[in-house]
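Table S2 (text version). Query chain:
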Amino acid sequence: MSRFDAALNALEAETGWKPVADEADAPATARFDLAGLSFSMAAPDDRHLYFTYRLAELASDEDAQARARGYARMAAAAFRTRHAALSLYQRAFYLSQEVDLTAIDVADVPVFCQKFLNDCDWWRKNFPPA
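Corresponding C-alpha cell output:
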C-alpha cells in the first residue's frame, strides 16, 4: 500500500469523509467537499502530502495590485501562527500545507488535516474580499 493510500485510509477512518470521485483527478489525489469548503490532498511522489484549498479570486481592476500587496502583508503577519501558506496562482489565492509522509506516522494525517482546515477557516473569516 502506498503512503498516500495509507494516509487517505487514516483520514477516512478518523473522520468518515469520503473523497469526491472525479475522473479528471490525477493519481494519488483526493478531493473533499465539506459543507462549503472544498479541498484536495495529493502525494505525487508518495513522500510529500499536500493539502490545497482555493481561497479567493483576485479581481482584475486597478486596485488588484494594491490588494495583493495587502494580502501578502497579512500572510507575512500570520505566518508565525498559521500552518498553511498563502500563494497566488493564475489570479487566485490558494492555501497549501505540506506534510512529509516519510517523517510522520500516517495515522497522524487527520491531525495535520485538522490544522489545515482550522487555517482555512481562519483565512476565510479574516481574508478581505478580493
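Notes on Table S2: Strands lie at 29-34, 37-42, 48-57, 85-89, 92-100. The radius of gyration is 16 Å.
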